[in-house]
Design brief:
This protein is mainly beta and 263 residues long. It is 14% helix and 51% strand. It contains two helices and ten strands.
């Protein structure tokens, strides 16, 4: 939990510093403008970098937050609606002493298509706002490799991939695997749902906080399926309770592209 507090403290500290600086310089900047100065018209497109911490919700759900990073490219369709293509990579971790006596580490990569609704731009009557509040959802694919270890000995107990592992059909809830054997990462559908708070540093630069919750169509994201100690290999890796989830709390930095114009 202390990691979350640290992220929030850094974020709001940066906001306070930037707000004070902008407040001092804004009046002087406005007075220097003239009708002959070239202005920048904000483009529909933007790029976002992010970094943060993941948290897992499943069988091995005792907290062990680890890092993730990502990059996204977005385009605005209307005043309040935009779509983006996001990529993220990192690790997910957790443990459970009771019954399992296990901890797990999952390395993952994810690609997502996101539809975002900027509530501030949609409903605010101001020409410019300091903050933008958005909600979003989408669909994507996660590629992962998960291993569970004994808490006392660090010995490998269970795993999601092996020399005999095969990929299942995308979006399949459970069933027999198909394709070639020996895959290094399995893939599953994910449904991201989240919200974002952005502070407009300038017309083109934003810093923000993003909380994203992932629904994962699998029960072996933590190399554990149900209340069992057996390995979640192919025949039963798709259980009737594919309920693994994880979240990502991140700090974001967004750059909005611009095109030249004249006032």
């Amino acid at each position: 939990m202390k990691h979350i507090y640290l992220i929030l403290l850094v974020f709001f500290g940066v906001l306070a510093s930037v707000y004070a600086q902008n407040h001092k310089t804004k009046a002087g900047s406005v007075r220097k403008q003239s009708s002959h100065i070239r202005s920048k018209e904000i483009s529909r497109f933007a790029i976002t970098a992010k970094g943060g911490l993941t948290q897992f919700y499943g069988e091995l759900n005792e907290q062990d937050m680890v890092g993730s990073y990502g990059l996204g490219v977005s385009g605005r369709l209307t005043k309040g609606i935009s779509v983006s293509l996001d990529y993220s990579a990192g690790k997910i971790g957790g443990q459970k002493i009771t019954f399992f006596n296990s901890y797990f580490i999952t390395e993952y990569n994810a690609a997502e298509m996101i539809a975002k609704w900027n509530l501030t731009k949609q409903f605010s009557r101001k020409k410019e706002d300091l903050f933008d509040v958005s909600v979003y959802t989408g669909v994507g694919v996660i590629f992962f490799n998960s291993n569970a270890y004994d808490v006392d000995t660090d010995g490998l107990q269970r795993f999601s991939n092996s020399e005999t592992s095969k990929r299942n059909q995308l979006f399949l809830r459970w069933g027999n695997p198909r394709g070639r054997a020996g895959i290094k990462k399995t893939h599953e559908r994910i449904i991201p749902i989240g919200s974002a708070l952005d502070y407009n540093l300038t017309e083109r630069l934003k810093i923000g906080m993003d909380f994203r919750f992932y629904l994962v169509r699998t029960d072996k994201l933590d190399a554990t399926s149900g209340q069992r100690l057996t390995n979640p290999e192919e025949a039963d890796s798709y259980s009737t309770t594919p309920n693994d989830k994880f979240s990502l709390l991140s700090v974001t930095l967004t750059y909005c592209f611009a095109k030249s114009g004249r006032q």
